[in-house]
TrEMBL record:
Subcellular location: Membrane
Family recorded in the similarity comment: Belongs to the major facilitator superfamily. Phosphate:H(+) symporter (TC 2.A.1.9) family. Belongs to the major facilitator superfamily. Proton-dependent oligopeptide transporter (POT/PTR) (TC 2.A.17) family.
A Pfam family of this chain: PTR2
Entry keywords, A to Z: Membrane, Transmembrane, Transmembrane helix
Membrane topology: Multi-pass membrane protein
Protein name per UniProt: Proton-dependent oligopeptide transporter family, MFS transporter superfamily
GO function term, MF aspect, one: transmembrane transporter activity
UniProt xrefs under SUPFAM superfamilies: MFS general substrate transporter
This protein's GO CC annotations: membrane
Transmembrane stretches, start-end: 74-93, 100-119, 139-158, 188-207, 213-234, 331-354, 374-396, 408-428, 448-470, 491-511, 536-557
InterPro entries registered for this protein in UniProt: MFS_trans_sf, POT_fam, PTR2_symporter_CS
Organism name: Helianthus annuus
């Protein structure tokens, strides 16, 4: 019996619903299939996002500020929909079905986008000067938005489940498979970076030099192939049972606490409701005591059943359930202060690409696509990760005795580097504008006599910042959240990306309105050669300094709170 039990994975089933056989399911083969669909997702999303601003301006004839907002709204929606995808996976569909359904939606979206860029009726007629350019009409933009938001929906649902389904293929209670799971995370990040690298080089080149419809067609075909590949492993996967959405648990605590807001807390915390098994209990803390009222036992909290009575979870919650919500609440201050990084990040795939499109990009007779400048962004991420793993971690371990920087320190480095990146971008833009002014500023047909490689420092600084803040945020939100809410905390992390992009759109709209004049010029003029993009970058760097100051206070509060549970546990 023991031998038979050791061959099965306790909390996973196979495709027929039987306990998963360790020798026939899970491991690297099905995990590799899952990695394949992730690289295709990254190829499609990044390949579209980093070069979309040039299509919106050059083909659809939208102003640069409007183009930037379309891109950031598209990306923000993609990450925000991760919450929806996670909710559906946890509550109704399961991770595998969620991946297949939303990957199909993304493929449909890229196919629609390929069609919209191919048919002449779905884009305005070409023009050769800014004076007679006809902006895309409502129908043309409607088809484009349909395609983009189908992609956003597919990306959100897919991204919310693919990493979790990958880790489902390894048993964290088995030492050998637990080690393999750690390698899976490393390879998952590598495949994300590889997909991004292919997107900003090969795919962007095809878009600019061959045709966008072909490039988006390649994305569509690759997604369909990836779906077929992942379906081929149905019999090899391990499937975790759905346990319900943690969002419902959070709302139950909030509703119960609101209903009992007028009740007084007992003097003895042991009088609060708790029936969680000892091994899974979380100690009571004194923070957010208003939530403790959800655990007060009152009349009407129990519902009579045939065999006795049961608790109504919308009226009475356990102390452990309340503490789980408190743990999530403690994440919110850091969550709020990391949003601005992704606002700075958004400029790298919007206005920085617009900058590149106005500059000299020829190297040995080869014209570098403007969107391909983001390759330095990806390279900065890969180089920073390599230096951190190979040099900083061993050095820090010898000096401090810890394996590298803490999660809070990594996020701090990310915020510092992004602020520096925006300051450097402002200085570089001042130089570019001075060149534009010296040649008359009217250079829509011919590039400015200044090398595009002057933009590299801003890409490198913000890219290095992403390497630190992304890993720091992921570590922070996963390790400091309750075990039952890991998916929820990952979704919370991804909303910082979404809100960062939305904040970029908001700032662009406000700056456009405040600094614009009657002739439509301002900091974010339709033609950036007549604007003051340097001032906008400067504004972001100032906001970055203010935000970092707030972050230091929040980080100090979190460090203080880190010590509190340890003291309670010892006592």
């Amino acid at each position: 019996m023991d031998g038979k039990t050791s061959l099965t994975v306790a909390d996973a089933v196979d495709c027929k619903g039987f306990p998963a056989d360790r020798s026939k399911t899970g491991g690297w083969v099905p995990a590799a299939l899952i990695l394949g669909i992730e690289i295709c997702e990254r190829l499609s999303t990044m390949g579209i996002a980093v070069n979309l601003v040039t299509y919106l301006g050059g083909t659809m004839h939208l102003p640069s500020s409007t183009s930037a907002n379309v891109v950031t709204d598209f990306l923000g929606t993609s990450f925000l929909l991760c919450l929806l995808g996670g909710f559906l996976a946890d509550t109704f569909l399961g991770r595998f079905k969620t991946i297949v359904i939303f990957a199909s939606i993304q493929a449909l979206g890229t196919g629609t986008l390929a069609l919209s860029t191919k048919l002449p009726n779905l884009r305005p007629p070409p023009c050769h000067s800014n004076n007679n350019c006809q902006e895309a009409n409502g129908f043309q933009m409607g088809i484009l938005y349909l395609a983009l938001y189908l992609i956003a929906l597919g990306t959100g649902g897919l991204k919310s489940s693919v990493s979790g389904f990958g880790t489902d293929q390894f048993d964290d209670k088995n030492e050998a498979e637990k080690t393999q799971m750690a390698y899976f995370f490393n390879r998952f990040f590598f495949f994300i970076s590889l997909g991004g690298l292919l997107a900003v080089t090969v795919l962007v080149y095809i878009q600019d030099e061959v045709g966008r419809s072909l490039a988006y067609g390649i994305c569509t075909i690759s997604m369909f192939v990836a779906i077929v590949v992942i379906l081929s492993g149905i019999k090899r996967y391990r499937y975790k049972k759905r346990q319900g959405s943690p969002i419902v648990s959070i709302f139950q605590v909030l509703v119960a606490a609101i209903k009992k807001r007028n009740l007084n807390l007992p003097y003895d915390i042991h009088m609060l409701h708790e029936n969680t098994p000892d091994g899974s209990r979380i100690h009571h803390t004194n923070q957010f005591q208003c939530l403790d009222k959800a655990a007060i036992v009152a009349e009407g909290d129990f519902v009579k059943t045939g065999s006795g009575s049961t608790v109504n979870p919308w009226k009475l919650c356990t102390v452990t359930r309340v503490e789980e919500v408190k743990m999530m609440a403690r994440l919110l201050p850091v969550w709020a202060t990391t949003i601005l990084f992704w606002t700075a990040y958004a400029q790298m795939i919007t206005f920085s690409v617009v900058q590149a499109s106005t500059m000299e990009r020829t190297v040995g007779g080869f014209m570098i696509p403007a969107g391909s400048l983001t390759v330095f962004f990806v390279l900065a991420i890969l180089l920073t990760c390599a230096v951190y793993d190979c040099l900083i971690i061993p050095f820090w371990k010898k000096w401090k005795g810890t394996p590298g920087f803490t999660d809070l320190q990594r996020m701090a480095l990310g915020l510092i580097l992004s602020t520096l990146g925006m300051a450097v971008a402002a200085v570089i833009e001042m130089k570019r504008l001075s060149v534009a002014k010296s040649v008359g500023g009217n250079t829509t047909e011919n590039p400015l006599p200044i090398s595009v490689f002057i933009l590299i420092p801003q890409f490198l600084l913000v890219g290095a910042g992403e390497a630190f803040i992304y890993t720091g945020q992921l570590d922070f939100f996963i390790t400091r959240s309750p075990k039952s809410m890991k998916t929820m905390s990952t979704g919370l992390f991804l909303t910082t990306l979404a809100l960062g992009f939305f904040m970029s759109s908001f700032l662009v709209s406000v700056v456009k309105k405040v600094t614009g004049s009657r002739d439509g010029e301002g900091w974010l003029a339709d033609d950036i050669n007549h604007g003051r993009l340097d001032c906008f970058y400067g504004l972001l760097s100032i906001l970055g300094v203010i935000n970092f100051s707030v972050y230091l206070v929040v980080a100090a509060w979190n460090k203080k709170e880190d010590k509190t549970p340890k003291v309670v546990d010892v006592v």
